[in-house]
């Protein structure tokens, strides 16, 4: 019984609980392409994709990246608070649910691996495509590594302690 509950919790954690049930034509997805392009331009202009800026952050030589990350966390906190307080729904009227998460020590290990990879490569998953788009094709190795790491985790996920 406990194992079944644990698998159900894992399933809920991996499935998009806010996945829309509304069917759209293919061209409705162009808005996501446009948002991605705008997001990439903002990353380039804010120097978020700069390997030098990322190295500065990990060497504690500049506040630039910490300010960007901190402001993103603040915007996220305010957004979640507003969603909960006013019971905000999607533009299609569907409810937004925020599933409670439990802390476990695996999150520390995962965060450390993520941080080490970020420090070594100078890239986290967000800016990877923007870096490749600016011509930093060496970052393709980082992208392939991220995809491989995601696949390995997915393959071993049921065998890992959560």
In the predicted model, the low-confidence regions spanning at least 5 consecutive residues are none
As a percent range, the share of helical residues equals 55-70%
Overall geometry comes to globular
Q: Number of helical segments? A: 7
The sequence of SSEs as H and E is HHHHHHH
Strand content: under 5%
Number of strands: 0
In terms of quaternary structure, the protein is single chain
Biggest β-sheet description: none
- Structural category: mainly alpha
Intertermini distance: 17 Å
Radius of gyration: 19 Å
Mean pLDDT: 85
Q: Which properties best describe this structure?
A:
single chain; 162 residues; mainly alpha; globular
Descriptive report:
The chain has 162 residues and is mostly helical. The protein is 64% helix and 0% strand. The protein contains seven helices and no strands. Helix 2 (30-45) crosses helix 6 and helix 6 runs antiparallel to helix 7 (139-156). The longest helix is centred in the middle third of the chain and has 23 residues, at 64-86. The chain starts with a helix and ends in a 6-residue tail after the last helix.
